[in-house]
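subagent[fold] <- orchestrator: predict structure for attached chain, return tokens only, no commentary.
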Amino acid sequence: MMEYGELTQLGSGKQLRTGRDALEIFSGDGAFSVSFKGKELQAVCPITQQPDVYEWEISYHADGKYVESKSLKAYLGSWRDVGITCEELTRQIAEDVVRAALPFSISVKLTQNVRGGMTITAEHFVEILMEGREGHHDYERTGQ
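subagent[fold] -> orchestrator:
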């Protein structure tokens, strides 16, 4: 059974929180694979200060905690004015979702729109190896 009592943004009519604290989680029974895809992620190249626009995919194997989609949209929107590389952004998104939802594993893939005649795709995979997973926020990771 899903429990939504912790959610503060969905259906509230309030302006969405943004930034790294925007991610909201709800609880449910079971372990499911969850995927989100979109084309609305933007950041800024830290070298040229030009906007970088991405198609993105976030897939994770949940352990009873799930990312609420509206909060994910607000979280991703918060990167709009941040100077960060494609590779670093991929890693940071994965780490933020891991801290919020403690999944068994996560993959974040960003494909930057063509700039300078080339496309960049970065993918970051993390498998969480935790003892006593319940509420444990320190984790070891294996990454690509």
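orchestrator: received. Logging for downstream: Residues 25-143 form a domain with the GTP Cyclohydrolase I, domain 2 fold (CATH 3.30.1130.10). The first strand starts at residue 25 and ends at 27.
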